[in-house]
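Suppose a classmate hands you a notebook page containing two proteins, each written out with its sequence and a corresponding row of structure tokens. How would you begin to make sense of it? This section walks through that situation. The first entry is reproduced here exactly as it would appear on such a page.
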Amino acid sequence: MPGYLPHDCPQMRTFIEDSRLPIGYTDRFREYWIELVAGHRALQVIEFCPWCGAELPRSLRDEYFDALEPLEVDIGTAVDELPAEYRDDTWWRRLESP
């Protein structure tokens, strides 16, 4: 269950926290998504909140892999084998801190 959500309207949090529902958030990419095929991880990234209509923060997927490139980390590396700051949202939240 995610702690920090960059977009946190009450309905979004409720749906993301219920694992039975096909909507989620990936913190290391800052992506909200809808699962298209149950159990197959076929995901559609969404850009607007389905409940309040607010624009969601843009995905940082490209920036994530750009940040890993100088570290020469294989793209297929398991998440738990990545450097600690790249396993979750630590890497991008650190960049956004004043």
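The notebook's second entry, a different protein, reads as follows.
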Amino acid sequence: MKKNILKAIITVCSIIVIGLIVHFVNNNKLDNSGTVRIIVIDEAQNEVINEEIYFHNQNLRAILEENFEIEDRNGFLIRINEVYADGNEYFIKIYVNDKAALQGINQLKLSDGDVIKFVYTKVGDYSVPS
């Protein structure tokens, strides 16, 4: 009798664990679409680009390559259209929803409604743009 109850408990727990695993795996699939707003701020702190762009199962790099002229050096974005940062004294800092991005254009996961801001920034400048 105790063995049957133990088997039933183990079976129920196993089903719950498998269900949770399937749930989390399905939620992490790249099946994502929506719109993002791309804003680019140049060296004079002027907004030179402000566009809403539709995406479907794309990372930020793919969206940028499809809509703008970009250049990177060793994985760092150094040019978007006419805004060019040499990478030594200046760089292009990325903000997602007004927070400094901790990932680059290859790794950033997008969500519908995100505002991605690229700001021409002096190396060592930790101020937050308005």
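A careful reader of the second entry would note: The CA atoms of residues 15 and 73 lie 49 Å apart.
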